[in-house]
Amino acid sequence: MAAKYTASSLSRYLDGEFWATKNLIREEISKCDLFQSSSYDLTLDQSRDLTAERLRYVLNLPTMRLHLKDQVKDKKNRFITKSLGITELVCSADMATGVKLGVVCGLYGGAVTNLGCPEQVEKWYLPVSELEFTGMFAMTERGHGSNVRGILTEAHYDPATQEFIIHTPCEDAQKMYIGNAMKGNYAAVFAQLTVNGESQGPHCFIVPIRDRDGVLCPGVTAIDMKHKEGLHGVDNGILIFDHVRIPRENLLRKFGSVSGDGLYSSPIQSKSSRFNAMLAALTPTRLGLTVQAMAAMKLGLIIAVRYSHSRRQFGPKDQDEVKIIEHQTQYLRLMPHLAAALALTFTTRYASHMMDEALSEGQDLQSNRSLQALVAGLKAYSTWENLACLQECRECTGGMGFMMENRIPALRCDSDVFVTFEGDNVVMLQVVVRELMTQYTRQLGNSPVSGLLRTWASSASDNLRTSFIGFNVDKIGDLNFLLKAVSYRERVLQRSLAARLYAKVEKNKDEFFGAWNSCLHHVTGLALAHVHRVTLEQFALAIQECQVKEDHALLTKFCLLHGTSLVYQERAWYLEHNYLTPTTSKQIRNQLLELCRSVKDEALKVVSDFNIPSCCIQAPIAGVTNPRATWAFYSIPEHPGDETSLLSKHKINAKL
Amino acid sequence: MAAKYTASSLSRYLDGEFWATKNLIREEISKCDLFQSSSYDLTLDQSRDLTAERLRYVLNLPTMRLHLKDQVKDKKNRFITKSLGITELVCSADMATGVKLGVVCGLYGGAVTNLGCPEQVEKWYLPVSELEFTGMFAMTERGHGSNVRGILTEAHYDPATQEFIIHTPCEDAQKMYIGNAMKGNYAAVFAQLTVNGESQGPHCFIVPIRDRDGVLCPGVTAIDMKHKEGLHGVDNGILIFDHVRIPRENLLRKFGSVSGDGLYSSPIQSKSSRFNAMLAALTPTRLGLTVQAMAAMKLGLIIAVRYSHSRRQFGPKDQDEVKIIEHQTQYLRLMPHLAAALALTFTTRYASHMMDEALSEGQDLQSNRSLQALVAGLKAYSTWENLACLQECRECTGGMGFMMENRIPALRCDSDVFVTFEGDNVVMLQVVVRELMTQYTRQLGNSPVSGLLRTWASSASDNLRTSFIGFNVDKIGDLNFLLKAVSYRERVLQRSLAARLYAKVEKNKDEFFGAWNSCLHHVTGLALAHVHRVTLEQFALAIQECQVKEDHALLTKFCLLHGTSLVYQERAWYLEHNYLTPTTSKQIRNQLLELCRSVKDEALKVVSDFNIPSCCIQAPIAGVTNPRATWAFYSIPEHPGDETSLLSKHKINAKL
User: Fold this and answer.
1) Do B312 and B397 belong together in one domain?
2) Do A284 and A273 fall into the same domain?
3) CB within 8 Å: B646 and A571
4) Mean pLDDT of A333-347
5) pLDDT tens digits, A260-289
6) Considering the domain boundaries, does residue B644 fall inside one?
7) Would you state the torsion angle of the CA atoms of residues A103, A109, A112, A114, taken in this order, to the nearest 10 degrees?
8) 3-class SS of residue A162
C-alpha cells in the first residue's frame, strides 16, 4: 500500500540522486524474511543474534558489496551521499542493525580507511565486505567519553620485538560501551603512543580481539554490558587489555608511524593537531547519526500523522466526532516536526555533498571549518529534534502509542542514546562554536586566542547591518524575513559571545576554561542558532531547485513553517533584541498556528512520499496489519478531499 | 548510607505529617527480598508474577491493611494524604507495583467506595484488604479514551430476572488497556444504562471476570495486550462482554439505582451532571498520578545529581578535570527540575489536604471547582515535568544513564504513559479551564455559556489592576515579583480567552466546539499558567511554615529558582505584554543561571533528604553497589565544603 506514492515526483525529489539504489534496498528489505516482524519480545541473546543475521544479510546484498568496495577503492563516486542513503533505509528497517552497520563499516571501516594506508585497508577492511570478519571501534573509556583527548590506554613500542604493547593501566582506562564487543574480531583501539619514552599522543591501532571461532585473544578481556534502554541488538561491552602485544604494522599509519628501529614520524608536528586530523577524518560517521535520527523521525511521523487522520475523538454537539488531526493542539504538535524532517533531509544532503566534493578533490576535511561546524551542529540538532518529535508522536497517538506493536516506543528507546553517544550534544555544540571561531582566525591570519576574539568581535558586527534591513522592509510571512531573522540571531549571538569572552579573557585575565564555562549557555545558543540558520537556508535552496510546480508549492509551505517555528521558538530573544515587536511576535504565533493548520492534510502525502516500506513501518495504527495485535489496526487514511472541513460529516463506522 | 540524612529536619518537613508511616513502609521495603533487585531483565510473565507478588506483600503489610480498612470505614482520618504518601514510596520501589496498587485500591477500590453504598463496599472491596481477590477498572474503550462520555458498552436491565445484561456491541466498545485484566477477579465496568428502553447515561457495574482459580466467567473474553514501552509488570488487557448477566445489586448505586420492578431513580436528575458527579468522586485517584510522577522525578534527580557530583570531565588547562556539575549547562539542566519537584511536593500536599477536609466535612468534591481544576492541572503539569526531568537526568548521566542498571531508562519508560492515561494531558488542561469557567458562573449565579463568558470576561479584568503594581515596585529577584508575574499571566490569559470565546460564540455565532478548538493553544496556555501560579504560591506558603532557619533559607532559594524558571520559560509572553522589558528579561536569564549555580552543591542535601531507601535507588552511579554492573559504580559524593570552587584542586583517583 505504501507503494501508492512510490513514483511520485516529490518522493523522487526527497530520495535525491541515489533513488535507484534506495529502491533496490527497499525491495531487498521488503522481501527478506528477517525484516518481516518486529523484535520487541525477544531475549537479549535472540535480539543480538537476529541483528547479526540482519547485518550479514545487508552486507551480503550485491548493491552493498559493490558499495563497500567503492569505500576502499574509489572515494570519488559520491560515496558518502550513497552510504547515508543506504544507512537511512537500514535504520528504518531496524535501528540496531543500522547502528551495528555504522560500527562495522562507518566507525571501524572509517578508522581503517581514513587513518590507514592502502595495504592496511586491504588487510583489515576489505575482508569485512567479504563477510570474513567484523570490527569494532574502541575510543571511549570509562574515565573519558566526552573529553576523548584524556584517554589513558597505553601503547608502548617495544623495539626489541617490533611490537606495540597495548595496556589498560586503570579502571578508568577500560574501553567502554564498545559496539560489537561480544561478537567482533578486530578493534580499532585509540591509545596514547609512547616511543622511546616519548609520548606522541593518541593513535589508532588494530588489535585482534577474538578469532573467527569466537575465542578471545590472550590478554584481552571482554565484559558484556548487557541491558540498555534500547538498541538491544547491539552487543556493547567493555574491553580490557593486559599487555597485549601487536605487530608494528598494526598502527594505522596515515598520521604517524614508527620505523622498525623505533623512530616516530608524522606529517603533522603538533600532537594536538595530529589528533584533530584523526578526528576530522572520522567526520563522515558523525553525519551518519543525523541520518539515523532522521530515519526514526520519519517513521514516527508516518505513524502519528496517519493515526491522527484515522482516529476520531470529540466533536461538535450532536455531530460525529472529528479526526484528531483537526484538534489545534494536535496539528500544532506534529506539523513543525514534519517541516524539520524535510529541512534535515535537504541539509544532510548539502553536508554530504560538501564532503564528497572535498574528498573527490583530495581535500583535508579538517581544514573545512564550516563543514566541521555544520556536521557537529547537525548531530546535536537532529538527535534532539528526533527525540522531541518521537515524544510528540508517542503522546499524539495516546495509549496506542505506548504499545510496542505501534513501533514508536522502541524507536524512541533506540534513538535516545544518539544525543549523548559519538559526541555528547552539549560537547558537539561547543565544537560548533570553536570551529566557527577557528574559521575566523584562519581567514584573518591570526592565531592567538585573544587576537581571534578581538577580530571576531569586530568583524562580525560589520555583517549585522544588512540583517537589520529585514526588519522594516519584509513581512513576517515572507521567507526572506525568516531567513534574515535566523541569520541576524546567529550573528548577534556570535558578536556578543566574542565580546564577552574577550572581556573575560583579555581584560579581566580570567582563566579560559572558567570564562568559557560561564558563557556555556550562550555558546550552546549560538551553536543551535547556526544550525537553525543553515537548515532554513538549505530548505529554501532546495525549493528553488524543485522543478515540479505542485511539489514546489507544497515544500514552500513547509519551509515557511520551519522558519516560522524556528523564529517562534526564539521569539523571546527577538523581543529582547527589539527585532520583533510585541505585535509581530504575536503575529508569528498566529502564523505558526495557521501554517500548521494549512498543511495538516498535505502531511499525509508527505509522509507517504518518504517512501518507507510497510514492513519497516510495522504499526497497525498506521495501517499495517499485525496478527498479534488486530485490536490496534486502523486503515491507511484517504487523503481528505477539498470538501472535508473541520466539521466533517463523514460517518464513523464504529459498528462491528 | 541513605540513612545519613534520615533524621534531618528538612527530610521530616518534606515527609509531612505521615513521616512515621512512611518510615515504616521504607523499613518494610528495605528488608523485603522482593525489592532488592531490579527487574529489567525478566520476561513479561516473570515481570507480571513478580509485580503480583510485590503487590501482595504491600497489601499484606499491617500498616497497609489497617489503612485500607480506614478507606472503607473512616474517611475522616486524612485518608487521602496518607494514601498518597504510601503510594509514592511503593512507586519509588517499583512503578509497576505502584500502578497496580493504584488500579486495585485507587481505581477499583475508589469506584466501589465512592460510587457504591456501604453493603456494596462490604461485599466488593473489604475482601481486597483481606487479599481474597483483586479488582480492575474498566472505563476506557477502544473508541473512547479521552472522550469518555462516548462509551458504547451497554447495560440493559432485564426486569424478568432482575439482572443487567452487560454487552459489547462493537469493536470500538471493547474495554481496552484495562490494568490487572489478566489476573483480576472483578471489574468496575462503566456502561450506558438502559432501563425500560430509556437511556440513563453511564453507570458503574461490578462484573465478575474470573473466579479465584483464574477461570473466566461465561460470556467474558480477556485479550492480553502484552508488550508496552514500560510498566511490564502490569497486565493490561481487553475485556469483551457477550450478554453477560449480573444481578441487580451489582450496579453501584450511590448516584443511581434500579428497583426490583425496574424503576430507575437517582439523586441527580440530569444525565450529564450525574456522570460528572461520578467522575468527580474519582478525583483523588487522579492526584495519585501526580504522586507517581513525583516518585519518578525524585529518583531520577537523586541519581543524576549524585553522579554529577562524582563524575569529572574537562577542566582548566594542566589541571584536574572538574566535576560535571560545575559545567554551566549541567546545573542549568538539572536544578530547575529539583525546584519543581519541591514545588510539587508542597502543592500535592495542599491538594490532598483540601480533599481530606472536604471529605471529612461530607462535602461533594464535584462542587469544589478550584480543587477539580487544580487536580486536573497538576496531573498534566507533573507528568510532563517528570518526563522532561527524567530526559535531562538521562542525558546528564551520558552513556551510564542509558544502561538499565542505572534505573533512569526504566523510570522514563514506566512513567511515559502517565501523560496520556487516566485523562490525556491536553484533555486535562481543557478540564482545568472549563472548571475555572464553571466556578465563575456558579459564583455569579449564571448558567448559560454565553452569560458565563460575558461575565468572566468583565469580572476577570477587575482583578488585573493589583497585579500591575508588581511591575514597578518590586525587583525581579523578589519572590513577590515572581508571584505577581505568574498571577498576572494567568489573569490576562483568562480575560483574553473569555473575550475571544465571547466574540466567537456570542457575536459571530460560531459553533462552540469550533470556537473552543480555534483557541486550544490559548486554553492549554491558560491551564498551565494556572497550575504554575498555584505551585509557586504553595511553595511560598510552605516556606513560611518552615520553622528551621537553615531549611527555610535553603527552600527559599529553591522557591526563587522555581519562580524564576517559570517566568523565564514564558518570558516571550511577558515581553509581548510589556510586563518585562528587554532588560529585565535578560536579568531573569542571568538570575536563573545564578540561582542554579548557587544551589548546585546544596542539591546533594536535598536529594538525600528525599529519604529514598537505597534498594529503591538501585543505580550504581548513585553509589548503590550492584554485582552485575561493578563497572558502573561511583561512590556517593561528599557534600562539597566551602573551599570547593569551580577550579577544584581535588585529585582524581583514577588509578586502579
Assistant:
1) yes
2) no
3) no
4) 98
5) 989 999 999 999 899 988 988 888 889 999
6) no
7) -100
8) coil
Helix, strand or coil, per DSSP, at residue B238: strand
Q: Does A139 touch chain B (CB under 8 A)?
A: no
- Tell me which residue range forms the domain holding B518: 278-447+479-608
Residues A72-117 pLDDT 10s: 776 667 899 999 999 999 999 999 999 999 999 999 999 999 999 9
In the prediction, which pLDDT does A453 show?
Answer: 57
Contact (CB<8Å) B394/A401? no
Same domain, B252 and B292: no
Spot the catalytic one: A28, A141, A326, A422. Answer: A422
Close Cβ partners of A362 (under 8 Å, ≥ 6 residues apart): none
* Averaged pLDDT, B233-239: 98
A382 vs B: CB within 8 A: no
pLDDT higher than threshold 90 for residue B300: yes
Q: Could you confirm whether B385 is annotated as catalytic?
A: no
pLDDT band at A469 (very low <50, low <70, confident <90, very high): very low
Partners of B194 in the β-ladder: B156, B199
Residue where a domain terminates, one of A608, A628, A644: A608
Residues of chain A contacting residue B311, judged by C-beta atoms under 8 Å apart: none
- Overall size of chain B counted in residues: 656
CB contact under 8 A, B229 and A578: no
Residue A644 has pLDDT above 60, yes or no: no
Residue found by looking up cell 473466579 in the block:
B211
- Who has greater pLDDT, B552 or A5? B552
- B399/A140 CB distance under 8 A: yes
> Are B115 and B155 part of one and the same domain?
no
Output phi, psi for A176, to 5 deg: -125, 155
Q: Report which secondary-structure segment, H or E, holds A201.
A: strand A198-208
pLDDT of residue B419: 98
Q: Summarize chain A as % helix, strand, coil (round to 5).
A: 60, 10, 25
Q: Which residue of A has its CA nearest to B144?
A: A313
- A212 inside 8 A of chain B by CB: no
Q: Does B626 touch chain A (CB under 8 A)?
A: no
Last residue of a domain, one of B572, B591, B608: B608
- In this structure, the answer to whether residues B514 and B582 fall within a common structural domain is yes
Cell of A361: 578533490
A509 touches B: beta carbon within 8 Å: no
Q: What is the pLDDT of residue B471?
A: 45
**CB spacing of A517 vs B326 below 8 angstroms:** yes
The average confidence (pLDDT) of chain A is 91
Query: What pLDDT digit, counting tens, does each position of B61-79 carry?
Result: 999 998 988 777 766 678 9
B212 within 8 A of B220, measured Cβ to Cβ: no
∠ CA A3-A4-A8, nearest 5°, is 100
Contact A126, A147 (CB under 8 A): no
Residue of chain B whose Cα is closest to the Cα of A238: B631
* Contact yes or no for B654 and A238 at CB 8 A: no
Find residues 11-50 of chain B whose CB sits inside 8 Å of chain A.
40-41, 43-44
> How confident is the prediction for chain B on average, in pLDDT?
91
Name the grid cell of B392.
Answer: 535531562
- The number of domains in chain B is 3
> Which of chain A's residues have a Cβ under 8 Å away from the Cβ of B177?
399
Q: Does B571 sit within 8 Å of A586, measured CB to CB?
A: no
Q: How far apart (Å, rounded) are the C-alpha atoms in residues A277 and A282? A: 9
Look at residue A653 and tell me if it is in a domain.
no
For residue A587, the chain B residue with the least C-alpha distance is: B576
Distances (CA, A) of A423 to A147, A303, A383, A429, A645: 9, 29, 11, 10, 46
d(CA A470, nearest CA chain B) in Å? 20
Q: What is the ipTM of this complex?
A: 0.94
| Exposure on the CB side of residue A441, measured as CA atoms within 13 A | 18
pLDDT grade for A578, boundaries at 50, 70 and 90: very high
Does B140 show up as a binding residue in the annotation?
yes
